[in-house]
Amino acid sequence: MTRVILAILGTLVAVGIGAYVFLRTAAGGLSAMAEPSALEKAVARAARQMAIPPSAKSAQNPTPNTGQVLADARAHWADHCASCHANDGSGNTQAGKHMYPPAPDMRQPATQNLSDGELFYVIQNGVRLTGMPGWATGAHHDEEDSWKLVRFIRHLPQLTAVEEREMEALNPKSPDELKEEQEEKEFLNGDQSHEHTEHHHH
Question: 116 near 60, Cβ under 8 Å?
């Protein structure tokens, strides 16, 4: 019976979204540069809630809340999640800000009030109609990684400047950044070689 009700609700939401999209398009297009309306934000929140089955909400986090678990999660977040969510979870990145809807500030109640099981389910399965992918089948990501990330999400409101600096060193580098780092390394190595040569001649 619950599945039938959810199916009906899903259909109604889909029809509502379709009608809204039609009217919005007729009024001037669907630019992703525009600020999402209150209705769109409400639909996005509803889609997230509907995507999480009731059984997932009560799931308990099996990973301990230790310094090592948080360190592992920080490193994983910096490498896999920060490009959209930012190291501090604010969503203040080029990719995060230009999604539609934008990546949420995960330090705020809308995320922090979710249960551990809900956060885990979203990480594992993603949310349709948003930019959030599911990581359940990732080659370098397993369930333990997801549970550790839940611990880190809980820690985001208390993230320190020292932790952020450590994460910056782990963020993926663009080709331009890698080239710049290589040029700096070659320049420094060149200076050292030159100093060594001068010292040898003396």
Answer: yes
| Residue 76 near residue 149, CB atoms below 8 Å | yes
DSSP characters for 40-108?
A: HHHHHHHHHHHHS-HHHHTPPP-S---HHHHHHHHHHHHHHTHHHH-TTSS--SHHHHTSSSPPP-TTS
CA distance linking residue 5 with residue 3, whole number of Å: 5
Distance of CA 191 to the CA centre of its chain: 41
- Tokens of residue 4, six digits: 């039938």
- Going from the C-alpha of 114 to that of each of 52, 59, 65, 150, the distances in angstroms are 11, 12, 17, 10
| Percent of residues, the chain, with pLDDT higher than 90 | 49
Contact in structure between 52 and 136 (CB atoms under 8 Å): no
Decide if 59 contacts 120 (C-beta within 8 A). Answer: yes
Question: Two tokens at 120?
Answer: 């885990």
Query: Which residues neighbour 155 within 8 Å (Cβ) at sequence distance 6 or greater?
Result: 70, 73
Instruction: Look up the pTM and report it.
Output: 0.68
SS3 call for 9: helix
Nearest CA-CA partner of 119 in 87, 182, 77:
77
Tell me which range, 51-65, 105-119, 137-151, is most confidently predicted by mean pLDDT: 105-119
